[in-house]
Design goal:
- It contains seven helices and no strands.
- It is mainly alpha-helical and about 140 residues long.
- About 5% of the residues are buried.
Length: about 140
């Protein structure tokens, strides 16, 4: 809404992550700056504290525990993707297409030379672009794409 302007837009932009963006998108209607500040506050505090604890615990925990904890981020991304994918076929198809593209970048001879970070960008942009062209989202106000 209009309260999210000027410096507030910069502050919210600093705090927005994938998870916070998904939560805000799930909000029906306009999103105020108070809503965004409330949405951002707890995760940022949790991630900051978690980073501190993780850095300290990384020096103490055995290597096998550290490796097991490193896959937790995949579970977090699944928790972000599954709820909206259940409601929207386009989101589900985009996620599946991105996963298939990612597999191509992992196992196909020429594509496996592309760095991991760059392949994520390519998979994301391609899958989102293709699904936006095939299944555009209609604007609620005027019914146009």
């Amino acid at each position: 809404d209009k309260s999210l302007s000027g410096i507030h837009r910069w502050l919210v932009g600093f705090g927005v992550t994938d998870e916070i963006f998904v939560m805000a998108m799930g909000n029906i209607g306009k999103v105020s700056r108070q809503y965004m500040y409330g949405l951002i506050a707890l995760p940022v505090a949790g991630w900051s504290l978690g980073t501190l604890i993780g850095a300290a615990a990384g020096k103490i925990l055995p290597e096998i525990v550290i490796s097991a904890l490193s896959i937790a981020i995949y579970g977090m991304f699944l928790a972000i993707i599954i709820p909206p994918a259940k409601k929207n076929k386009g989101i589900a198809m985009a996620a599946i297409f991105a996963a298939l593209l990612s597999c191509c970048f992992k196992w196909l001879p020429i594509l496996n030379k592309v760095s991991g970070g760059f392949s994520i960008i390519i998979c994301t942009v391609l899958s989102a672009g293709i699904m936006a062209a095939l299944m555009p989202v209609k604007n609620e106000e005027d019914g146009q794409c």
